[in-house]
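Title: Prediction job returns without error message
Component: structure pipeline
Severity: low
Priority: P3
Assignee: unassigned

Description:
Job completed but the reporter wants confirmation the result is attached to the right record. Sequence as submitted:
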Amino acid sequence: MSDECYEKLAEVLDTLPNGFPRTDSGVEIRLLKKIFTPAQAELFCRLRLTFETVEEIAARNGMPVEGLKGALMGMAVSGQVFTIKPGGIRRFRMLPWVFGIYEFQLDRMDREFAELNEEYWPYLSKQFFSDTPQLMQTLAVEETVPSHQEALPYEKVSAIIEKGRSFMVNECICKKEQGLLGKPCDRPVHVCLGISLEPGVFEKTPSARILTKEEACALLKMTEDAGLVHLTGNVQTGHYYICNCCKCCCGVLRSINEFGVPASRAINSHHYAVIDADLCTGCGICADSRCQVGAVSDEGETFAVIRERCIGCGLCVTACPAEAIRLVRKERQEIDVPPLAEDTWFDERGRRRGVDFSPYR
């Protein structure tokens, strides 16, 4: 069978702002074959990053409407496209590889998929973290942010949760992948929180557990206690997920720890931690079990924060028995203000990558 449709799909995905780099081995094509049939690959390339109705997609592409909705719904169920139904009108759009197609493969992840993605990740990581704006931003544990350094709404877990009308939790696909590769995580795995402004959105989502707002807050508190980092989209509005991440599984954190990606390139953060050497008792809790990016160094009798590695999550602050650690807000000139929304993120990322994705807007 010809790979032409998959080569075209790979080209389209790499034209999108998020990127999808090519490799000499062709592992990316094998990944796409694992997820898409040839017909699905061809249809995907006819979509856009903006939502359209079935009728609009058909008219723009000169395609018959008959059968198109069923094909698109099948792709939505398979995590290849995204669909919403505002006001009762069904709309569809294409997804980038990350955050997008990969994360929506939870129900289809098997050992082969895990091995392929593990082979591909170093290539994707090198390209993905060479440009900004970053995909994600840190949400610091709120109790660690001093009142005189009040976080902006898009930096606060509570503000994002308060806007939500629907909540769900899923198993983390990064943790599932590592488990299939024989490296299971010793921290909670059902920690990926989905959020929607529309009520009832997640009721038909496979494998998801529906949560109330109170349960969502309790989940996030549990993940803080477990030493997981809150990460969300690097935008000011329209947040639809909060990931709760560990150093052994999360692709973003692993890029810092294993591939040497600078922390400021991998994650947008607004704070950094400082350890008071006079108060530090040298217990090492912050370094051993709380910091997920190796940002705490052993200075002999005390510990210190390596500022350029710190992502300002606040996990070390909450666990310090001597109360020797505090979060400090970065100076204004050091802070990367996130794009307003996902579409402005796409525009800025595309401009910086130098890709013309106008056919897919």
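Comment from assignee: result matches the submitted record. The first helix runs from residue 4 to 15.
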